[in-house]
Amino acid sequence: MLPSELAAEVLSDTSFCLTPIRFGILVAMSVLLFLYLEDETTTQCRLRKLSLEARIWCHRLHLSKVLGLSMSKLLHDMKLIEQQYSNHPYHGPHHAADVVGKCGAMLRRDKAKLRRVLRVRMGKGGAGGISERKFAVFQLAVILAAAVHDAGHPALGNNYLKMSQQHKFQKCGFSAERWSVHWFTSKFLKQQSFLNDLTLAEREQVVSIVSFAVLKTDMQAHADVLGMAQQVLKEKDAKKRMQLLAALLLHTADLANGADSWSISKLWARWCHQEFHAQGDTSRAQHPELAVPSFNDRAQADVPRAQLGFIRMFVKPSYNALWAVAPASAALGLCGCLVNSGMCRLTMLWQGAEQKVMDVCGAGKLPRLL
Ligand SMILES: [Zn+2]
After folding, report:
1. Which residues contact 161 (CB under 8 A, 6 or more apart)?
2. What range defines the domain where residue 89 resides?
3. What phi and psi values does residue 121 have, to the nearest 5 degrees?
């Protein structure tokens, strides 16, 4: 049946009536769809410069006002971070800017709940609120961690760095995340000036939160980070609680492009696989002795299936974990996961049907891309 025939049949069906319950469901669905489409983290394809994005979010979160930060110094120092990113298809400055935006939006959207999670415990169940300044220091650390988390990323996976014995990463245990932290602590902190507007204790706290959270963006730590949502609620030490919460927010924001609106999420998936396939090509050319994993092999590419697996295994569990500490952001992210999983399945069905036709014609294999 053609879609036009189906539409005509539905319209001519006089048995359908708009009951109050159906009307309520329709309104609720429209509101959810509106929130999903209009949310700043889902509709904007973040192609703003990293330095500008970080500055915008520091302004929106009132960090300059509360902490007395100089915005011109901050912009200058963010440019130092921006210069560490190469123009890789995925791990470029646009990815860092996107993660800064996602973290900023989560910090703003769930501010009240996050402040409750970080409140000071005073024994026997008593608790006092976290001061505006302490919370601002936490927010600044999360934004800085998001900006720096992939600085110097080589667009190669840690496994490949290890197997191909990349000399530059030897000192950092062949980990791109450790490399970013090493650059941040040994180079950036010596060159920057905006953190000098904070007290020494606050500066040390920012450095400890950034270092901890960036190391936890390694996908090997995914299961660890999911456990942090419950850990953060039980943790008694206020500083440790900030580290755990920052790691959870950053890790979720790092994967959150899988829950963006479909048109944008599709773009990120495309860029990510371009980078995976480029790594496969490099591996074949420079290290023919190494086996190329299927997700790095462009001949075996099945991007919709890989994206569905990514959402199911990483993005959705991260938002589920986030529910305990940032429910508004988690609800929005889970809504995105639901829509995008459906779109991946639909694309797989459609590409499978196309392939069947090609098989009948003997026309060979169609590329399964997004
Ligand atoms: Zn990242």
Report:
1. 154, 169, 174, 175, 176
2. 42-361
3. -85, 135
Please name the residue that has the structure tokens 């001061």. 131
- Determine the Cα angle at 74 with ends 212 and 82, to 5°: 70
> Is 27 part of any domain?
no
* Number of domains into which the chain is organized: 1
Report CA(258)–ligand 1 centroid distance (Å).
Answer: 12
Predicted model pTM = 0.87
Q: Pairing relation of β-strands 120-121 and 127-128?
A: antiparallel
Compute the distance from residue 221 Cα to the ligand 1 centre, in Å: 13
Residue 13 lies in a domain: no
Question: Euclidean distance between the first and final Cα of the chain, in Å?
Answer: 27
| Alpha carbon of 151 to ligand 1 centroid (Å) | 9
- How far is residue 262 from each of residues 36, 269, 314, 331, measured CA to CA in Å? 11, 10, 17, 17
Distance from residue 366's CA to the centre of ligand 1 (Å): 31
Over its length of 370 residues, how does the chain's per-residue pLDDT go in tens digits?
555 565 555 456 555 677 788 778 877 776 676 565 545 544 445 567 899 999 999 999 999 999 999 999 999 999 999 999 999 999 999 999 999 999 999 999 999 999 999 987 665 655 678 899 999 999 999 999 999 999 999 999 999 999 999 998 999 999 999 999 999 999 999 999 999 999 999 999 999 999 999 999 999 999 999 999 999 999 989 999 999 999 999 999 999 999 999 999 999 999 999 999 999 999 999 999 999 999 999 999 999 999 999 999 999 999 999 999 999 999 999 999 999 999 999 999 999 999 999 999 888 888 899 9
If phi > 0 it is left, if psi is from -120 to 50 it is alpha, else beta; for residue 165 that is left
Q: What is the CATH number of the domain that holds 242?
A: 1.10.1300.10
Specify the length of the chain in residues.
370
> Which among 25, 150, 39, 134 has a CA at the least distance from the CA of 100?
150
Contact between 341 and 263 under an 8 Å Cβ cutoff? The reply is no
Q: What separation in Å is there between the alpha carbon of 193 and the centre of ligand 1? A: 25
Residue 11 lies in a domain: no
- Calculate how far, in angstroms, residue 23's C-alpha sits from the geometric centre of ligand 1: 42
Flag whether 2 is in a domain: no
Distance 59 CA to ligand 1 centre (A): 23
